[in-house]
Amino acid sequence: MAVSYRHIQIETEGHVGWLWLNRPRKMNAFSPDLWEDLPRAVRELSARSEVRVIVVAGRGRAFTVGIDLNMLAGLAPAGGSPAAIKRALFRRLKELQETFSSLESSPVPVIAAVHGWCLGAGMDLITACDIRLAASDAVFSVRETRMAMVADMGTLERLPKVVSSGHVAELVYTGKDIDAARAEQMGLVNQVYDDQESLISGAADWAGQIAANSPLAVQGAKAVLSAERGLSVSEALDYVALWNTAFLESDDLNEAVASFMERRPPRYTGN
Predict the structure, then answer these.
(1) With helix as H, strand as E and coil as C, how does the chain read?
(2) What pTM does this model have?
């Protein structure tokens, strides 16, 4: 049975899965159903054998303006003792964190294609992705600081893995808006495009380059990079040696050698 989503559209083109935030009238603000549907859509695309890379983009005038303020106002549970209320809120926050963690834990690489506003929860989303691309009109902000909140959906944990500590402090402590050029200078985004149309075309090109490689190698590399965070170089070398001991032999490896010898593009199957 096909899964339906209220504010998300998914589609596949070849080996690329496209996940569109589709609440354009609200500039893709994260309502409760969008928050719940995103990880479901990520899991659905990740489970499709033909999908080797996912691109996350937004319909309308913005990538996302962050959490819907109506949802924010009703986030804290009502009734019960102070301890019970705090426990319920903690559980709810942990559930919401999984929305963006699903992108990081997807076995396939995820590309964020950002245009227009990318505020608050948008930063949580893109820092959980592997690659970030932007249109020249993109605007980024850790907006929670300006709303008297500590960002709690992953930005504080993942942003330091993307940009330098000084840039983290700049973005988090000020909550300021930065444009795409500044984001590229910081290393927050990999590349900036002139407009949304060229951004989507560029994202398709990046995705195509990734999908042309062996999915065993690409997904293995993502798994190894994830597992090796926090390990010493020696520990990480042991880990990747064990990984290749288990997974090096494959039809894709044989195809890589054969295609090189025959001077033709490889045809990888993921086996």
Answers:
(1) CCCCCCCEEEEEECCEEEEEECCHHHCCCECHHHHHHHHHHHHHHHHCCCCCEEEEEECCCCCECCECHHHHHCCCCCCCCHHHHHHHHHHHHHHHHHHHHHHHHCCCCEEEEECCEEECHHHHHHHCCCEEEEECCCEEECHHHHHCCCCCCCHHHHHHHCCCHHHHHHHHHHCCCEEHHHHHHHCCCCEEECCHHHHHHHHHHHHHHHHCCCHHHHHHHHHHHHHCCCCCHHHHHHHHHHHHHHHCCCHHHHHHHHHHHHCCCCCCCCC
(2) 0.94
